[in-house]
Amino acid sequence: MLDLVIKGAMVVDGTGSPGSVIDVGIRGDRIEVVDQAVEAESAETLDASGLVLAPGFIDVHSHDDFHVLIEPEVRHNILQGITTVIVGNCGFGAAGSEAGKIQMKAINEPSVELPDWTGYSGYLDEVEKTSPSLNVAALVGHHTARREAMNGVADRPPTDDELKAMLANVEEGMEAGAVGMSTGLVYEPGRYASTDEVVALGEIVGKYGGVYVSHMRDEGAGLLDSVRETLHIGKASGTPVQISHHKSVGKTNWGMVSQSLEMIEEAVSQGRDVTADQYPYTARSTMLFALVQNGTFNSSEGGAMGKSDPSEVLLCSVPGYDEYEGRTLQSFVEEFDLPGEDAANKLLSEYSDAILVAAFGMDEGDVRMVMAHDSTMIGTDGLDRGSKPHPRAWGTYPRVLGKYVREEGVISLENAIHKMTQMPAEKFDIPNRGLIKEGYFADVVLFDPDSVIDGATYENPRVGPQGMPHVIVNGSFAVKNGEQVGSRTGHAVRKGQI
């Protein structure tokens, strides 16, 4: 007997092919039958007429490394149909645990004491023991490896022994089942690493068939040089490449993504495996300290993180000063009677050095161009911290499906779902997920294509989507009739392991 039969939905299977109305039968944690009419006896039948049934979404750019342990319901993800996250992005990895906890405080300070673990094997074991509401795969973080090996942030090359320690960190992570390695070459301590250092680490990743994922050195005027470096690292180390949150920041740099997309196309034409990810918004979210460090406010073009005016910067999280969250940096320029950078430095030195912000500076036309490109997957880059987090943490996937598919026709429904499911599963070697197919894990999302839309805004960001009533993880409902039901059936996902 089947556990669940879902009848009458338009099944869009993740391949990019047109959908069709068929039934799906689930037994245990697997999809057992996909057929025109499933007549087998079932413990439960769900009439899904009028809904689209798709594979659960795979968030290729998550920062929920600790969130899945501290708040394992991961409400902001599961409500928007995410059934698997890939954590460890932008160089912020989880192991060694002490270095990871220190490094991660910049973007996701733990609200409770976390256990210690040994290596990525230990981290993934903690995930499995916690059993969050969704599945978790991990990248090895370059920041964390460098911080641990060099005993903190160091603006110098590693010694031979320090490099050996970094190589060992990466090797342990890949042995443990990490799906690749990430860098954040605009942030500390990754910004102090040479290209050769990253290549050396990447060679370990390449040996295990992992992916090199990079928040590049420059997403402003130096975007194209950064793409060249990233492509070089991939080629020299023998790794597939994933460009994180592909964009060009600062008005003077708008349109440059047409050239960076051409560079990706050229690499692909040479047989290279090069892809990217994107969140569907014109504001990024990052540390206020990083914007200052990279010259965002003190030149006409900005620095490596592009240009944003103080009026375009919203404070998302100010630890200890909740009342400041949601205000613009411009309001502090006026209150302190200081220029933008000086006002930012005053906030960092006198209030909190761990301020997160949302900063506008991207072009809507660029967002559409990148989204429509064959190289692009979807990722949240979500930072659900503070009372006013960037809405991408809660709204990315329904926003793509509602705004960019239904309302604007930037991409087709089938293509959007492919970018959210099969494409990332194949890129990161996550077997038996990402498709509606017999024998695959029953990670499933059902949504109304006529009403699905994000509810999260910059003013009220912690709001789930509309039109996404059901989410199933490993055969169990995590969301039913639009409400999270408390089921926690997620697993740690190790590269290539079924």
Strands of the biggest beta sheet: in what spatial order?
A: 8-9-10-11-12-13-14-18
Q: How does the major sheet shape up? A: 8 strands, parallel
Number of helices: 16
Q: Domain count, please report it.
A: 3
CATH architecture of the largest domain: Alpha-Beta Barrel
Got a strand count? 22
CATH class of the largest domain: Alpha Beta
Averaged pLDDT: 96
**Helical percentage:** 25-40%
In one word, what is the shape? globular
Q: In CATH, what is the homologous superfamily of the largest domain? A: Metal-dependent hydrolases
If you compute it from the alpha carbons, what radius of gyration comes out, rounded to the nearest whole angstrom?
A: 22 Å
**Helix-strand category:** alpha/beta
Percent of sequence in beta strands: 15-25%
Instruction: Point out poorly predicted stretches.
Output: none
End-to-end separation: 24 Å
In the CATH scheme, what's the topology name of the largest domain?
A: TIM Barrel
